[in-house]
Amino acid sequence: MTAPLLEIVGLKKHFEIRKGILGRVSAKVYAVDGVSFHIDPGETLGLVGESGCGKSTVGKSILKLVEPTAGTIRLGGTAIENLSRNAMRPHRRDMQVVFQDPYSSLSPRLTAGDIVAEPLTNFGLATGKAARDRTAWLFEKVGLRADQMARYPHEFSGGQRQRLGIARALALQPKLIVADEPVSALDVSVQAQVVNLLMDLQAEFGLSYLFVAHDLAVVEHISHRVAVMYLGKIVEIADRRTIFAQPLHPYTQALLSAAPTPDPRARKTRIVLSGDVPSPINPPSGCRFHTRCPVAEARCRTLEPPILEIAPGHQVACHLHTHATN
Amino acid sequence: MTLTLVAPATSAQTTGKRRPWWKRHLSIVIGGLLLALMVAIAVAAPLLGTVDPAALSPIRRLRMPSEQYWFGTDALGRDVYSRVVYGARASLFVGFAVALLAVLAGLLFGLLAGFNRWIDAILMRIMDGLMSIPSVLLAIALMALTRASLENVIAAIAIAEIPRVTRLVRSVVLSLREQPFVEAAIAVGTSTPLILWRHILPNTIAPLIVQATYIAASAIITEAILSFIGAGLPPSIPTWGNIIAEGRAIFQVRPHLILIPAGFLSITVLAINLLGDGMRDALDPRLARQL
Q1: Contact A118 B203 (CB under 8 A)
Q2: How far off is chain B from A29, nearest CA to CA, in Å?
Q3: Residue A40 and residue A43: Cα distance in Å, rounded?
Q4: Which of A65, A182, B14, B179 is most exposed by smallest CB count within 10 Å?
Q5: Long-range contacts of range A239-247, CB-CB < 8 Å, 24 or more positions apart?
Q6: Is B231:B145 a contact under the CB 8 Å cutoff?
Q7: Contact B223, B155 (CB under 8 A)
Q8: What does the DSSP assignment read for A104-137?
Q9: Contact A109 B202 (CB under 8 A)
Q10: Are B273 and B31 spatial neighbours (Cβ–Cβ below 8 Å)?
């Protein structure tokens, strides 16, 4: 078994809400509250959940765009969670990001070529002619033409802009790309192209992806393994086939049953959850899902279920399943 | 049904011939031409048939406008035409210098405040304090502390304008630094000074240029107010403000002594404001709206 490329253990990010001129902490948002997983080289981990469950915050914490409150983040064996912004710089070569919004993630006043070349010049990998050649090569790798380098971002379509974002992420030849809902802002027809581009690049460069999304169809297409998040915690992780065929956690089951199927005659029992997602400022006691869980028991209200491996590679945090195996 | 009715109209709008540049930005053209005229008058003052604006001639005082004295003479017999033309120099110089100074200082303070929480906390409280004093009053107070001179007037007015620019730049920086493209720059390893230079600064230019025109216009008015109440430039330098002040005593018999310099003042301020409005619309409308 190879060593994981990325390993995070007990990651927490609590945002403090400050009030008054003295900046007293009046409340905390438990955006990410103890998340652990790993990503192997060349693997795609899909991270799914409702909006506000903390999946984007996980991505940003790994990239150190937000400072994690607790937990360890190991990238290629090095702990990076406590590194300062400057100490972090060399590690950025191994880890890049593609953002959700292809409009606001590109500087409006730089040319497309300058945007893609920025990481190259930052690390002194190429300058002048060499940088231009490398940028042209990157443009072609993501399906853009080299003669579009002099254009500005607003002259590109949404899908093309996302390709620019991918080219920028590829420039440093990273091992891991955190893709934060990279296709959810795009038209469905363009989504497929961008997802296929990401998969082609993975095959060519052996990239690993942390693919954050809420669209289950896309996640099923691209991921090797899938992690499901609810209110700052992972409730279930398994390989793609297992999670889509035999979801164990009641939340995963509800999430999957809500996804539309292309076959109009398919009859599935749809599990409709009652109520709203509780606030991450004041998460429920015990199992965080118990307020909406159709099969909650008394112990779910008081006792928090640990996440346990119930089959090789299949982890679930639910009393119904973990107690059965104990 | 509605779709078929609407579609041809919108396509005609987009495919139709665009109006020429000068028609779309008429206020830039008019404001720019008027301002250029004023600048030309100020620069070419000695060539415009003027005499020494400070030359006294008590025997010819309070003449009505005539062929020899286009705008008449004032109570000390000085040629008002020459004084008004030379007055354009002081007004425009003060306006441009204050705008430049206030924008540069405000840009520096705004960038610092937008990127450092401690500097922000201290600097913005000072700016709040400065802004709680009306700018004219602040300029008067500053002038009362110093000697009447061109530099002091410029400094006094600029200090009163700096908080406004600082706030503008800070607000733009605060909204920009949360933008994904700044996070992307951090992720690709761009250093903080380079992020400020390459990603933040270019996006502050458009709102700053617009703000600079408004500052220039308001500085010209403030200079005139200071000169009018005797707290501005020394009387030896003709400015529209002190020409108006000197004409005030005999306003009822020689109204043109006030109306002519006031007219020049109004046209200059109008020209700069037209230019600023036009530029706000012409430069990146998305950013201009943040003003």
Answers
A1: no
A2: 19
A3: 5
A4: B14
A5: A239/A313, A239/A314, A240/A46, A242/A311, A242/A313, A242/A314, A244/A220
A6: no
A7: no
A8: TTS-TTS-HHHHHHHHHHHTTS--HHHHHHHHHH
A9: yes
A10: yes
Q: Please answer whether residues B106 and B168 qualify as being in contact, where contact means their C-beta atoms are separated by less than 8 angstroms.
A: yes
Cα–Cα distance, B205 to B283 (Å, whole number): 10
- Cα–Cα distance for residue pair A134/A233, rounded to 1 Å: 41
How far is it, in rounded angstroms, from Cα A175 to Cα A172?
Answer: 9
Which residue of A118, A135, A152, A154 is the best one to mutate when testing the B interface, meaning the one whose CB has the most B CBs within 10 A? A118
Burial A269-294 (b: 16+ CB within 10 A, else e): eeeebeeebbebeebbebbbbbbbbe
Out of B181, B189, B284, whose CB is closest to A119? B189
Of B184, B192, B198, the CB nearest to A168: B184
How many angstroms separate the most distant Cα atoms in chain B?
84
Most B CBs within 10 Å, among A56, A107, A154, A172, to test the B interface: A107
Q: Which residues of A165-189 are buried (b: 16+ CB within 10 A; e: fewer)?
A: bbbbbbbbebbbbbbbbbbebbeee
Q: How far apart are CA A71 and CA A51, in angstroms?
A: 23
pLDDT in tens, B164-201: 999 999 999 999 888 899 999 999 999 888 998 889 98
pLDDT digits (tens, 9 = 90+) for A268-306: 677 788 778 888 888 888 899 999 888 888 888 888 898
Q: How confident is the model at residue A38 (pLDDT cuts 50, 70, 90)?
A: very high
Least Cα distance to B96 among B241, B205, B218 occurs for: B218
- Residues paired with A45 in a beta bridge: A210, A225
Determine whether the interchain pair B184/A165 forms a contact, defined as Cβ–Cβ distance below 8 Å: yes
Tokens of A244: 């889509």
Contact A202, A31 (CB under 8 A): no
Instruction: Please give the residue of chain A at the shortest CA–CA distance from B204.
Output: A109
Gyration radius of chain A over CA positions:
21
Q: Which residue has the tokens 């974002």?
A: A165
Say how many residues make up chain A: 326
Which residues from A are below 8 Å from B191, CB to CB? 89, 122
Question: How many whole angstroms separate alpha carbon B76 and alpha carbon A40?
Answer: 91
Percent of chain A with pLDDT over 70: 97
Q: Could you tell me which residues come within 8 angstroms of residue B187 by beta carbon, excluding any fewer than 6 positions away?
A: A63, A65, A92, A96, A97
Measured between beta carbons, the chain A residues lying within 8 angstroms of B192 are: 85
Tokens of A284: 């429920």
Q: Which residues contact A54 (CB under 8 A, 6 or more apart)?
A: A13, A31, A32, A33, A35, A229, A231, A232, A280
Which residue ranges in chain B fall short of pLDDT 50? 1-16, 285, 287-291
User: The pTM is what?
Assistant: 0.78
- How far away is chain A from the Cα of B200, in angstroms, using its nearest Cα? 9
Structural domains in chain B plus CATH codes: 25-288 (1.10.3720.10)
Q: Which residues of A touch B284 (CB under 8 A)?
A: 108
Q: Whole-angstrom Cα distance, residue A290 to residue A318?
A: 10
Question: Scanning every residue of chain A, which has its alpha carbon at the shortest distance from the alpha carbon of B203?
Answer: A109
Is residue B280 within 8 A of residue B210, CB to CB? The reply is yes
